[in-house]
Design brief:
alpha/beta, 7-stranded mixed β-sheet
Protein backbone atom coordinates (compact mmCIF):
# COMPACT_ATOMS: atom_id res chain seq x y z
CA UNK A 1 0.00 0.00 0.00
CA UNK A 2 2.83 2.39 0.79
CA UNK A 3 3.82 2.41 -2.90
CA UNK A 4 0.62 4.28 -3.69
CA UNK A 5 0.94 6.97 -1.03
CA UNK A 6 0.10 10.52 -2.05
CA UNK A 7 3.11 12.84 -1.89
CA UNK A 8 1.51 14.91 0.88
CA UNK A 9 0.58 12.00 3.15
CA UNK A 10 2.60 13.56 5.95
CA UNK A 11 5.14 16.26 6.40
CA UNK A 12 8.45 15.63 4.61
CA UNK A 13 10.69 16.99 7.29
CA UNK A 14 13.99 15.97 8.87
CA UNK A 15 12.36 12.77 10.14
CA UNK A 16 11.09 11.66 6.71
CA UNK A 17 14.10 9.40 6.23
CA UNK A 18 13.91 7.72 9.62
CA UNK A 19 12.86 4.12 10.07
CA UNK A 20 9.24 4.95 10.89
CA UNK A 21 8.58 6.71 7.59
CA UNK A 22 6.83 3.83 5.84
CA UNK A 23 4.55 2.94 8.75
CA UNK A 24 3.57 6.56 9.35
CA UNK A 25 2.77 6.90 5.66
CA UNK A 26 0.58 3.78 5.75
CA UNK A 27 -1.41 5.06 8.72
CA UNK A 28 -1.82 8.49 7.10
CA UNK A 29 -3.02 6.83 3.90
CA UNK A 30 -5.55 4.67 5.78
CA UNK A 31 -7.10 7.64 7.58
CA UNK A 32 -7.00 10.01 4.60
CA UNK A 33 -8.94 7.31 2.75
CA UNK A 34 -11.56 7.32 5.51
CA UNK A 35 -11.77 11.11 5.88
CA UNK A 36 -12.39 11.40 2.13
CA UNK A 37 -15.24 8.87 2.42
CA UNK A 38 -13.60 6.52 -0.04
CA UNK A 39 -14.67 2.89 -0.16
CA UNK A 40 -12.37 0.27 1.37
CA UNK A 41 -11.93 -2.97 -0.54
CA UNK A 42 -12.02 -5.85 1.94
CA UNK A 43 -12.63 -9.60 1.47
CA UNK A 44 -16.17 -10.94 1.71
CA UNK A 45 -15.37 -12.74 4.95
CA UNK A 46 -14.35 -9.44 6.55
CA UNK A 47 -17.51 -7.70 5.29
CA UNK A 48 -19.49 -10.50 6.93
CA UNK A 49 -17.97 -9.81 10.36
CA UNK A 50 -20.36 -8.03 12.78
CA UNK A 51 -17.60 -5.58 13.70
CA UNK A 52 -17.29 -4.48 10.06
CA UNK A 53 -21.00 -3.74 9.86
CA UNK A 54 -20.78 -1.68 13.05
CA UNK A 55 -17.81 0.21 11.62
CA UNK A 56 -19.63 0.96 8.36
CA UNK A 57 -22.72 2.18 10.25
CA UNK A 58 -20.66 4.43 12.51
CA UNK A 59 -21.68 2.66 15.71
CA UNK A 60 -18.29 1.15 16.43
CA UNK A 61 -16.57 4.48 17.07
CA UNK A 62 -19.16 5.30 19.74
CA UNK A 63 -18.35 2.05 21.53
CA UNK A 64 -14.58 2.30 21.47
CA UNK A 65 -13.90 6.03 21.88
CA UNK A 66 -11.54 6.91 24.73
CA UNK A 67 -13.04 9.77 26.80
CA UNK A 68 -9.74 11.20 28.07
CA UNK A 69 -11.56 14.02 29.88
CA UNK A 70 -13.01 11.53 32.36
CA UNK A 71 -9.58 11.02 33.93
CA UNK A 72 -7.93 14.32 32.96
CA UNK A 73 -10.37 17.09 32.19
CA UNK A 74 -8.54 20.16 30.85
CA UNK A 75 -8.71 23.17 33.13
CA UNK A 76 -9.37 26.80 32.21
CA UNK A 77 -6.38 28.52 30.59
CA UNK A 78 -4.31 25.33 30.45
CA UNK A 79 -2.34 24.67 27.28
CA UNK A 80 -3.24 21.27 25.86
CA UNK A 81 -1.78 19.29 22.95
CA UNK A 82 -3.77 16.56 21.20
CA UNK A 83 -1.42 14.26 19.26
CA UNK A 84 -3.05 12.26 16.48
CA UNK A 85 -6.12 14.42 16.94
CA UNK A 86 -7.84 13.37 13.70
CA UNK A 87 -11.04 15.42 13.48
CA UNK A 88 -11.67 15.24 17.22
CA UNK A 89 -11.92 19.01 17.64
CA UNK A 90 -15.18 18.76 15.70
CA UNK A 91 -16.48 16.11 18.12
CA UNK A 92 -15.46 16.46 21.76
CA UNK A 93 -16.47 19.53 23.85
CA UNK A 94 -13.09 21.29 24.07
CA UNK A 95 -14.66 24.76 24.04
CA UNK A 96 -16.52 24.06 27.28
CA UNK A 97 -13.26 23.60 29.17
CA UNK A 98 -11.90 27.06 28.30
CA UNK A 99 -8.43 25.61 27.73
CA UNK A 100 -6.14 26.43 24.82
CA UNK A 101 -5.92 23.55 22.34
CA UNK A 102 -3.17 22.66 19.89
CA UNK A 103 -2.98 19.61 17.67
CA UNK A 104 -0.54 17.50 15.70
CA UNK A 105 -1.65 14.99 13.08
CA UNK A 106 -0.19 12.86 10.27
CA UNK A 107 -3.31 13.09 8.08
CA UNK A 108 -3.14 16.17 5.89
CA UNK A 109 -6.90 15.88 5.30
CA UNK A 110 -7.66 16.04 9.04
CA UNK A 111 -5.13 18.83 9.57
CA UNK A 112 -6.56 20.98 6.79
CA UNK A 113 -10.15 20.33 7.92
CA UNK A 114 -9.43 21.35 11.50
CA UNK A 115 -7.39 24.41 10.61
CA UNK A 116 -10.17 25.67 8.34
CA UNK A 117 -12.96 25.07 10.87
CA UNK A 118 -11.39 25.17 14.34
CA UNK A 119 -10.91 28.92 14.46
CA UNK A 120 -14.53 29.38 13.38
CA UNK A 121 -15.61 27.41 16.44
CA UNK A 122 -13.43 29.46 18.82
CA UNK A 123 -10.56 31.52 17.48
CA UNK A 124 -9.23 32.29 20.95
CA UNK A 125 -8.99 28.72 22.25
CA UNK A 126 -8.08 26.91 19.04
CA UNK A 127 -4.37 27.31 18.37
CA UNK A 128 -4.07 25.26 15.19
CA UNK A 129 -2.92 21.82 14.08
CA UNK A 130 0.58 20.98 12.88
CA UNK A 131 1.36 18.20 10.40
CA UNK A 132 3.79 15.68 11.83
CA UNK A 133 4.24 12.37 13.70
CA UNK A 134 4.09 11.75 17.42
CA UNK A 135 7.82 11.12 17.84
CA UNK A 136 8.74 14.55 16.44
CA UNK A 137 6.50 17.20 17.99
CA UNK A 138 6.60 20.65 16.42
CA UNK A 139 6.38 22.44 19.75
CA UNK A 140 8.66 23.99 22.35
CA UNK A 141 10.05 22.46 25.51
CA UNK A 142 7.75 22.68 28.57
CA UNK A 143 4.93 24.24 26.55
CA UNK A 144 1.94 22.16 27.72
CA UNK A 145 0.05 21.38 30.91
CA UNK A 146 -1.63 18.36 29.33
CA UNK A 147 -0.78 16.14 26.36
CA UNK A 148 -3.37 13.75 24.90
CA UNK A 149 -2.78 10.86 22.48
CA UNK A 150 -5.67 8.50 21.84
CA UNK A 151 -6.60 6.09 19.09
CA UNK A 152 -3.26 5.36 17.45
CA UNK A 153 -0.70 3.76 19.78
CA UNK A 154 -1.77 0.27 18.65
CA UNK A 155 -0.56 0.95 15.09
CA UNK A 156 3.06 1.09 16.23
CA UNK A 157 5.39 -1.26 18.11
CA UNK A 158 6.39 -0.48 21.67
CA UNK A 159 9.79 0.72 20.45
CA UNK A 160 8.04 3.61 18.71
CA UNK A 161 6.16 4.52 21.86
CA UNK A 162 9.46 4.81 23.71
CA UNK A 163 10.36 7.63 21.33
CA UNK A 164 6.93 9.22 21.81
CA UNK A 165 7.38 9.23 25.59
CA UNK A 166 10.69 11.08 25.19
CA UNK A 167 9.06 13.78 23.05
CA UNK A 168 6.02 14.15 25.28
CA UNK A 169 8.24 14.54 28.33
CA UNK A 170 10.11 17.30 26.48
CA UNK A 171 7.01 19.39 25.68
CA UNK A 172 5.25 18.89 29.04
CA UNK A 173 5.62 21.40 31.83
CA UNK A 174 6.96 20.02 35.12
CA UNK A 175 4.04 18.34 36.87
CA UNK A 176 2.03 18.09 33.65
CA UNK A 177 0.14 14.97 32.64
CA UNK A 178 0.12 12.72 29.59
CA UNK A 179 -3.11 10.87 28.81
CA UNK A 180 -3.12 8.15 26.18
CA UNK A 181 -4.83 4.87 25.42
CA UNK A 182 -3.56 1.39 24.63
CA UNK A 183 -5.31 -1.49 22.93
CA UNK A 184 -6.05 -3.97 25.72
CA UNK A 185 -5.37 -7.29 23.99
CA UNK A 186 -7.37 -9.20 26.59
CA UNK A 187 -10.66 -7.52 25.70
CA UNK A 188 -13.07 -9.76 23.71
CA UNK A 189 -13.28 -7.27 20.84
CA UNK A 190 -9.51 -6.88 20.41
CA UNK A 191 -8.71 -9.65 17.92
CA UNK A 192 -11.66 -8.93 15.60
CA UNK A 193 -10.80 -5.22 15.66
CA UNK A 194 -7.17 -6.00 14.85
CA UNK A 195 -8.28 -8.08 11.85
CA UNK A 196 -10.59 -5.30 10.65
CA UNK A 197 -7.93 -2.59 10.92
CA UNK A 198 -5.36 -4.74 9.14
CA UNK A 199 -7.68 -5.13 6.16
CA UNK A 200 -8.42 -1.40 6.25
CA UNK A 201 -4.70 -0.84 5.76
CA UNK A 202 -3.32 -0.39 9.26
CA UNK A 203 -1.69 -3.36 10.96
CA UNK A 204 -2.40 -3.54 14.69
CA UNK A 205 0.08 -4.66 17.37
CA UNK A 206 -1.52 -6.79 20.10
CA UNK A 207 0.77 -6.11 23.05
CA UNK A 208 0.07 -7.25 26.61
CA UNK A 209 -0.80 -4.76 29.33
CA UNK A 210 2.27 -5.95 31.24
CA UNK A 211 4.56 -5.04 28.32
CA UNK A 212 2.88 -1.65 27.97
CA UNK A 213 3.35 -0.85 31.63
CA UNK A 214 6.97 -1.99 31.43
CA UNK A 215 7.47 0.48 28.56
CA UNK A 216 5.78 3.27 30.50
CA UNK A 217 8.02 2.68 33.49
CA UNK A 218 11.15 2.51 31.32
CA UNK A 219 10.18 5.89 29.86
CA UNK A 220 10.34 7.46 33.30
CA UNK A 221 6.58 7.85 33.66
CA UNK A 222 4.47 7.04 36.70
CA UNK A 223 0.91 5.79 36.25
CA UNK A 224 -1.50 8.10 38.07
CA UNK A 225 -4.80 6.66 36.90
CA UNK A 226 -6.21 4.16 34.41
CA UNK A 227 -9.65 3.49 32.99
CA UNK A 228 -10.68 0.42 30.99
CA UNK A 229 -13.08 0.74 28.09
CA UNK A 230 -14.59 -1.87 25.79
CA UNK A 231 -11.45 -2.01 23.67
CA UNK A 232 -8.93 0.59 24.81
CA UNK A 233 -7.50 1.32 28.25
CA UNK A 234 -6.80 4.93 29.16
CA UNK A 235 -3.67 5.84 31.11
CA UNK A 236 -2.88 9.08 32.89
CA UNK A 237 0.83 9.42 33.67
CA UNK A 238 3.32 12.03 34.80
CA UNK A 239 7.09 12.18 34.54
Amino acid sequence: MSKNLPSNSYKRNSYSSDKWQERIGQIAYRFNHQYQNQKFAVPDEVEAMPIFREWINGRLSERIVSPFWEIAQPQKNEHCLDIGCGVSFLIYPWRDWQAFFYGQEISNIAKDTLNSRGSQLNSKLFKGVELGPAHHLNYDQSQFDLVIATGFSCYFPLEYWQAVLVEVKRVLKPGGHFVFDILNSEQPLAEDWAVLETYLGAEVFLETVAEWEKTIKAGGAKIVKRQLGELFELYKVRF
